[in-house]
Amino acid sequence: MEDGKSAPLERYLAVLEAVATASKALSLSEIAERCALPVGSTHRLLQNLQGSGLVTTDGTRRKDYRLGERLLRLLHAGSDDAWLKISVQPVLDALANEFGETCFVTRLVGHQVISLAWAVPTSGLQGYVFPGHIMPPHAAASAKAILAFQPKSVVDKALDVVLPKLTPRTKVTRTSIDREHARVRASGYATCLNEMEPGVGALAIPIEVPEVGVMYSLGVSSLIDRLNRRSLEATIERMRIAADGLSPALGDLSSRSPMRPPPRRSPGAYSAKG
Questions:
Q1: Do 134 and 90 share a structural domain?
Q2: What's the pTM value of the predicted model, to 2 decimals?
Q3: In the predicted model, is pLDDT for residue 267 greater than 70?
């Protein structure tokens, strides 16, 4: 490597670039060769990167290296909105027309759950979940479906805001919210029934992306009376099938560019749907 690029940070970046641009997991010697670094130095760099979750090994004795979950999650948080919307829109459109209700996808950005894309049926009740809205972390089904699977540090930050009691059914204590998250993990879906607006409900399914985990959710929102026309089990099963279809598309990290940071909003500036 050139003298001007021998600083520790540049060596770390060189290792990450070698791993990221490879078509397969690389061995220690392969990474050292690509970076023109001694094997011993490369091993120390990889150990530090692995300790930070930026690279990981494939679990074999050879210990080939690939990008780690922490870095992949950062890539998803900075993914281009337009690319993601194109990926999820056909599934959302089909699901909205099948249910006759508004369907939407949300994404975890930092510690906030942000609405990403939505679809309304060509006929039936048309609600609105505009992209870019911050979902109430304590009340929205879409937020619960994501936060229930996050580390405690992320949940702590998400709930470290004023949590308004939007209706008499809104859960605002940490104990009740933690209990709700446990229920979501056990059942695999989240609900928001009369918690944000009387008579309005939402269901949400976590979308697990390979090697990344849960950073997205798929939701449906409508009047509770309309949601009850279809059995809960049938609705959840259909949403799970749709979520399984979205997962591979969201897992494709190619052709992405950084997105603009979400707008700052006051604690009460939430979407009207969950």
A1: yes
A2: 0.67
A3: no
